[in-house]
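Dear colleagues,

As part of the handover before I leave the project, I'm documenting each prediction I ran so the next person doesn't have to rerun anything. This entry is a single chain, and its sequence is reproduced below.
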Amino acid sequence: MLDLVNELSLIEDEFILVLDDLHWITNSDIISALTSLVNHLPPLMRLVILTRENPALPLSRLRGKGQLTEIRLDELCFSAEEAAAFLESAMQLSLSEESVRSLHDRTEGWIAGLQMAALSLFGRDNPDDFVGSFSGNHSYVADYLVEAVLERQSEDVREFLLQTAMLEDLNGPLCDAVTGRCDSRELLLHLEQSNMLLVPLDERREWYRYHRLFADLLRNHGRPEAGTAPAARHKRASLWYDQMGYRVQAIEHALKSKESDWVADLVERTCPELYYGVRPMQWLSWAEQIPAEIIEQRPVLSAACAWMHSRPVFNCVGGGCGMPFSGRKQRNAIRSFDFRRASLF
């Protein structure tokens, strides 16, 4: 490598060496030689590296010396205005402002996603109607994500992606609880560094979410036989959220777990909050998904449902809670129950 550096140093004009798809290089000897080149870079040479993940080079040192310029995923995404110009000028599409905004939101400015959406729109009589249904499951997008992203991962990583796709937000302990792993934090950091369409939600890199199109694909690409069943993973997520005090998320996952008794437990715990008018409509939507026979066995939950349906503003809500009683029994249940003094734990 030093001989090559010496030969490159003889070039008298400024020049650029471009290395594309460096993420395919895994041979340690090649990486070592490239590191040597970076450490002894000729003064007139500029090295440009295109890669899907951080290369095993002394990036921190170069960054600290001001010798590194980085163009990351955020800089490569189009703004809403750039997306509009791209769709109109480059792809020759005439879309309404609302449709352009919708496509930008769904793709999050991801240029490849916008291009595949545009290809899907060609030849359609009413492209604006198609925009509303565009997702990561559309054939062009799905084929690209499967071939360029999903199939290039190890079986272990693919399993993790498919098992955690049901989560809106992800962090290490939550993913550990859902998957049964103990290294989810490290794996999430690896996925972010690999530019795996993982969006960080905080500066500390603790919470993430999948890119919307990628999440669409993963949620519809999972194999039924892979790992634990979805309902069981939702139960695990619900238990974790409950332990951490995230009540809304715990109930939402409990509903997807199809375990009505567990849903009733969680919904019942929120009854004291109803007295103070905390999210009454949301609470009612949860309670209405609990079977009537389970509500009948729970005096606290029965009284809460009765009280909710006695309030004029909620009388219009149909059916409500599978109510096991009404009229005089309903009024008696309300009179005999004090939400402020309820002991539910």
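The longest helix spans residues 230-244. The beta strands are 15-19, 45-49, 198-200, 208-210.

All the best with the project,
I.
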